[in-house]
Amino acid sequence: MCDLLCALTAATGGATLFAKNSDRPPGERQVLEWLPPRHDRDATRATHIAIDPHPEITAGVIGSRPAWGWGLEHGVNVHGVAAGNATIYTTLDPRDRPDALTGMDLVRLALERAATAAAAVEVITSLLDRVGQGGSGHEGHRRPYWSSFLIADPTSAFVIETSGNEHAIEPVERVRAISNRTTIPSFDATHRHPGQPVETLVDPRWDASRRVLAREPVTVEALQAHLASHDGGDGGWTVCMHVDTADHQEATTAALVAELPVGGPPIAHVTTGSPCTSRWFDIPVAPPTDGTWLANDGPPNER
Q1: Known catalytic residue: 2?
Q2: Which domains does the chain have, with CATH numbers?
Q3: Which of 60, 82, 147, 251 is most buried by its number of CB atoms within 10 A?
């Protein structure tokens, strides 16, 4: 489960803003790290498969990932592109498909290979066409899934929704929120899983996100407060899934609010735990001056 939001400059009066809560198994550790530029002269090894090498040097990325995996739940690159994904369920059963690229793999590949949101869309959709989507997003047991994606840069943003290799793309006009369901009307009409209880598990969170975006100007502080809120459904299915019961399948283990200004360096505001109880760190998206760091060990500019 995840919730993602973005607001373009017309709705903020300043920088484009991107936000995401990463909801994962409660005991899973998530790592925030700087991924330096590299030149993949050999095949790129993703979570489950290897793909052809990328001919160009990758962009540096600050991203958050499950410690066991290769792909990213969310991140921001040095060009000011932010991206994240959310699990969605469709009429196509992912359990029957072979291992390929996970949604998290596609987020990382888009951030490493794209200098604009439109280019990131092209990275993801071309990889869906050429390589495909599939494989578990969880350690120790097989839970494959499809993804929706929200991608933003200083001047534009896009939603991609997928079902296997099929996909739909929708440009963001002003503000947009996505969650764990199909939301592009034409795609939703064709591909929504008929048995998914979106009315109780998803729509309350999605509606809460849309209410926040309707209160303009949208600010970093408003998005941080929203990601830390317990708005949404019953039984722990809230925007911040900070749950006390060990048997709950999902909990918010990391969060990001990204500022993407025109003509300036992006800033990642991050937590590495439930936002309602964790500290936010403000991190300029640029190569660290003292080597690779992990936010778990204390990144700079603590708030």
Answers
A1: yes
A2: 2-297 (3.60.60.10)
A3: 82
